[in-house]
Amino acid sequence: MTASFVTRKTCRLCHSDKLTIGLPMQPTPIGDNYLTAAALQSREEIFNLDLYLCEACGQVQLRDVVSPELLYPAFPYVTSVSVGLPEHFRKFAGDLMGEQGIAAGSFVVEIGSNEGPMLRAFKERGCRILGIEPAAEIARAATAAGVPTLPRYFTPELAREVRAEHGHATVIAANNVLANIDDLDAVMEGFKLLLARDGILVLETSYWRDVVGKGLIDTIYHEHISYFSVAPLHAFFHRHGMQLIDSQWNSNKGGSIRLTVQWSGGTRAVNPSVARQIALEQREKIHALATLAAGRRRLNELTGQLQTALGDFQRAGKSVTGYGASVGTTTMLYELKLGSLVKELFDDNTRKHGKFSPGLHLPCVPAGNLDASRPDYVVVFAWRYLEQIQKKHPRYGPGRGHYVLPLPELKII
Ligand SMILES: [Zn+2]
After folding, report:
1. Model pTM greater than 0.70?
2. How many CB atoms lie within 10 A of CB 85?
3. Element housing 66 (H / E)
4. CA of 188 to the centre of ligand 1 (A)
5. Going along 104-241, which residue ranges are E strands?
6. How many angstroms does the Cα of residue 225 sit away from the middle of ligand 1?
7. Is residue 51 part of a domain?
8. Distance 336 CA to ligand 1 centre (A)
9. Residue where a domain stops, chosen among 233, 267, 289
10. pLDDT for the residue 85
11. For 228-262, what is each residue's pLDDT tens digit?
């Protein structure tokens, strides 16, 4: 039997052993492992979720890496329809090709390509495309729908195979992928084997400055082993003979950065955005232990406020439920100590219905029940989607019940 997790001794980006615990978190079970009634009796393993700071390069990271077999069980594939996404990707593909001089006919590869909406946008503009997506059923569906996709993990070996068959890639994209990968040197090795001399990497990942600045604890869970920022990545790319040439912030996932990288000494000019973002990170000291400690204090305050408010409601005989049964909900329930204060979790995802939350075993019920059961208070764990939730439940709200927003600060409406 293999171990359920391994503990790293060195920084994932720079290999320094100066890893210091900076923001201790409540340990939790695997956050998305919602349980059937039959599984409630089985033992659930709890894993460390403390955030460590590399005092050499500033990278924030988990040290314990939970085994991928436990983190990524094969769920049955359900087609998702995300309205508006294709338009977003069309604009992205158009902008990137214009700004970075990517010609039609170029070869574009995406790691973690999912159903392939982004690649489809490049195909529309005349590019050759290839997706790499380890979830086999999704890869099969994408291929059938016109986005050729390999059901594989991206490794240096795979990069060699792709290069042999298709030639070098002019664009390699990886969105929300790097934070989940332990061996980033191997991924870089693969990128370098596949990337053309005039090619670019386009990477998007959630941004540590937003996580610590806004207390976005729902982005902290075991799949996310890295919490990236620009300065540590700039040094990491440099060590690999690559050069960060652009850094743009966007609001995805509460705050993300999109980075563009070329070979060191490449023909593209370095955008001032890179120096500007690194200067901002230094000015705000987002890589300082004191900043992580302040983040911890802020969480303690929020936990205290929620305990007081929800405790009062409970003592007054009011009903309190939750909305949203995601991986981030588990972190929030543990961190904010809400397990005994929230009765059940509403969620739209039919896969969650009839199941129980990891560790704390709160029952998950259809979100449609909200209007009928009309609890006095609903803690919105899916706090980013409050507007959509309010629209979906026009009969709940003022006069009938209250939404409790736990993040980014406590708000009762
Ligand atoms: Zn480091």
Report:
1. yes
2. 14
3. strand 64-66
4. 16
5. 107-111, 128-132, 149-150, 169-175, 195-206, 226-227
6. 13
7. no
8. 29
9. 289
10. 59
11. 999 999 999 999 999 999 999 999 888 999 999 99
